[in-house]
Amino acid sequence: MSSSQIYKSEIFHDEVEVVPSSVAVPSNTLPHPGSPNLFPKVLAIINTLKTSKSSIGSLTQILTSTQGSCQLIRVLKNLSTEETKHFTTITLPVIFDLAILSLKYIQSPIPQLKMTTKGVVELTRRQVAGLLALSLLGFYTLPQTFRDVSIFPIVFFGGKVQATKLRAYIAYFDGILRFSKDDTALDDEIAKLDSTVDSTKIENLKQSKVLDEIVVVERNVVKKFDFARSEVKVVGNVEVDDVGVIEDKQGALEADFANKYIGGGVLNMGMVQEEILFLKCPESLVSLLLCEGMEDKDSIRMYNVIKYSDGEGYSHGYNTTKEVFSKKEF
């Protein structure tokens, strides 16, 4: 395929010029998909899609050089026939197109948030989806300072736990597809408006597009703090509720103290508080690509991620049960 050709996505009604980027990749940044190391992999996806007769065949070929297709088959064996069909015919094409379209929406390296250093990264929801699609396809490796897993496989370790996680990621990509359709309908509505319509109304319509919303990852550092002498003073009313789970509380700030590395064991076999939270809100996974491990005085905060699925149970008994859509901050 010529490097100057256009890839057209029928799923997202979008297109991108498939060309490598000339933007350099400095240290302490996450490479963009057009960078010298990643662009050939994106090109390989496009070529694979042209030659493979099925989505699952394409994924198997792509994963052969990264995570191994045999583990994928192990995961799929724990899904129902209907779930497997949905994954192979709907979810995978969405993942492939998001990865390719990221050439258009992520055109420069993304700063990474180093330990003991304050910083903020802002990404559109569309950019986050592209990064997670690339990650699922094995594009990124993580330095030891980020976590103890060098590759970034969201799934495909095999077994029932990973099948549960795969269901959560299916719900996530279903949500992205749904939002894309809503945003496209909104674009059509805006295009039909004539010049007499108030410009403020048009701008409000544009700003209501979900995939253009901003997701924020922020690292905070307390430079001087004496833990031994610290006192916590509560100001105002505090409500204690022992019913339900923290991620179901609307309008609440959610805090987790479980692991030095954000996300805990969500990439492997972990399935407790932090991992379940990240499964329900998969956009949180982008923080694993951006944030080094935390020191004692570090904290990481995320804004405006969406809860895409819900579930029942705990630990290895947890099961993803349904799709939901609500915004969260933690």
From TrEMBL:
Residue ranges of coiled coil: none
Binding residues annotated for substrate, in chain numbering: 259, 273, 314
Residues in PARG helical domain copies: 80-177
Pfam families (UniProt xref): PARG_cat_C, PARG_cat_N
Domain PARG catalytic Macro, residue spans: 233-327
Keywords: Hydrolase
Native species: Entamoeba invadens IP1
Protein name, UniProt field: poly(ADP-ribose) glycohydrolase
Superkingdom of source: Eukaryota
A biological process from GO: ATP generation from poly-ADP-D-ribose
Family stated for the protein in its record: Belongs to the poly(ADP-ribose) glycohydrolase family.
A GO term for molecular function: poly(ADP-ribose) glycohydrolase activity
